[in-house]
Amino acid sequence: MKRPLAQVVSTGRAIPAHVMTNHDFAAIGLETSHDWIVERTGIVERHIARDGETTCSLGSEASRIAMQRAGVHAGDVDAILLSTATPDRLLPATAVDIQAELGATRAAAFDLSAACSGWLYGLTVAEGMIASGSAETILVIASEKMSSIVDWTDRATCVLFGDGAGATVLKRSRHHKGILSSFMRSDGTLAELLYRPHGGATVPITEAVLMDRSHFVKMAGREVFKHAVRSMAEACDRALDAARLTGKDIDLLIPHQANVRIIEATAKHAGISMDKVYVNVDRYGNTSSASIPISLDEAFETGRIGEGATVLMVAFGAGFTWASTIVRF
Ligand code: UT7
Predict the structure, then answer these.
(1) Is 202 strand, coil or helix?
(2) Model pTM?
(3) In CATH, what is the architecture of 6-175?
(4) CA-CA distance, 229 to 221, in Å (whole number)?
């Protein structure tokens, strides 16, 4: 096992106050049911951003909490990495809006686009920056306003997602705590199984695009499901092997929260019993890359992660991308 180079020293989260339950879809004329959504996904409700809540505002709020817990001031931050699939504007990066909002005047800031795996990708990038000596204190944030990119007339996708943000402060490892292993992969040949067809540089937003709603998320759910189960299993194996650990050594598994059936299959494959798996998909739906840092923050708050705990985090998302990281806290 390698010596840890970087550690997660604190966490924070920001969740919009407005809750939308499965029953609320009837009010927008969607043909679905609470029972279908719970049975197929495990989702009961999700939080939806309202008046003035943005990817920047949620990310900034989560960051302030994480910074305060770490005793880090805005001027101490060397870099801000924001994972998001829903930047507030396409140019510049939303990370610089967070930099301005926090007053982090010494910080480099950039967005990272790897869909649901983005926060785990961000941890690995930040670890590399710390190891190289180019940064000492890094904010790794995931903030997602999925409600702004789903098609609220498409029952196959809009019931699945929610909004929220999680943030963490990363510093150089001390006392052998920190990132023990990581794994990242991608397969762009499958991009069109989960994507936004139009609205980018190739086919910019036009009246025709708006009319056919092709700027919204499209997903081949069943196909994505199969790949998610397979890839998250592989990612668990690779991170465990690299750290010379097995599922028995893991105190808590925090999987990406997309579907409770995918979570159960991942835990089973890794040999981790469900009492050691963090699940909050019922309360938040799929918040894309924010789902793991939100879960991590809740797990600390509720005492699910104690001193010395070994935590395996694993994600899968559009791209496809998939990733895993094991951290000793
Ligand atoms: O975060 C990135 C990763 N994303 C994921 O991991 C998502 C992976 N996929 C999934 O979680 C599941 O595939 C879904 C939850 C999206 C769908 O569950 P499923 O068991 O794979 O259902 P399905 O797509 O095969 O659809 C089954 C039926 C269809 O009707 P027919 O064709 O069998 O008559 C759908 O039209 O369920 C219907 N359906 C719905 N019914 C009620 C689809 N969405 C809904 C809905 N309410 N919201």
Answers:
(1) coil
(2) 0.97
(3) 3-Layer(aba) Sandwich (3.40)
(4) 12
